[in-house]
Write a structure and sequence with these properties.
With 199 residues, the chain is an alpha+beta fold. The chain is built from 3 helices and 10 strands; from the N terminus they run αβαβββββββββα. The protein is globular, with a radius of gyration of 17 Å. It starts with a helix and ends with a helix.
Length: 199
């Protein structure tokens, strides 16, 4: 049974990649991709572990254009201020709750380590940017007392819904899977999600 689910998942992932026809948002057209290593995060290989590490699991849609914060620091070698940190924020509207103390219709603020600066998409995340109108399955965590969430395990914690109509980004051929590289998409976890939640 698990082998059949795995085959179905691979086919579904290929279908999602090939059938995307949404236009690329203008703010991402022609950008140079700059990857800054990776943020400090745990990795997950099983759905149970990912669920246990998350305070909420929801299906949600980005309802705004992302806001970004870019920090600069003077660099003597370049004799100028250079980018030292990038952060973006967006809000999702929850359409289905799979776990957690949230309700359908709630708006949750998310953060992710990327920003667009001077024609470059600078990122420490393996997740593609947060694009208005895109819908995903989110595994979320946050610090106690904070109202800002992040995706648990970065690319381990965000997956497409079966009716994926998310925007296509030319910067990667795997944007409908939500990642820059195919190896960053946990197809095993996605198989478990599809089997458990019928999404």
């Amino acid at each position: 049974m698990k082998k059949i689910i795995s085959i179905i998942t691979v086919c579904a992932a290929c279908f999602l990649t090939l059938t995307a026809c949404s236009r690329e948002p203008k703010e991402f057209e022609g950008l140079k991709f700059v990857k800054w290593g990776a943020g400090n995060r745990a990795e997950y290989y099983k759905l149970d572990d990912l669920e246990n590490a998350s305070v909420a699991v929801v299906v949600g849609t980005f309802v705004e254009d992302a806001e970004q914060k870019v920090q600069y620091q003077y660099n003597a070698a370049f004799s100028k201020e250079i980018v030292s940190w990038v952060n973006s924020y967006n809000t999702i509207e929850v359409s289905r709750v799979l776990k957690g103390d949230v309700e359908v219709g709630d708006n949750l603020k998310l953060t992710q380590l990327y920003a667009v600066v001077d024609g470059q998409l600078i990122t420490m995340s393996d997740l593609t940017p947060m694009v208005k109108g895109d819908t995903w399955i989110f595994f979320l965590d946050c610090e106690e007392g904070s109202d800002i969430y992040w995706v648990t395990g970065d690319s381990d914690g965000r997956y497409p819904v079966s009716s994926n109509t998310n925007k296509t980004l030319a910067i990667t051929q795997y944007s409908n899977l939500g990642v820059y590289k195919k190896q960053n998409f946990k197809s095993g976890i996605y198989s478990e999600i599809l089997e458990k939640y019928d999404i």
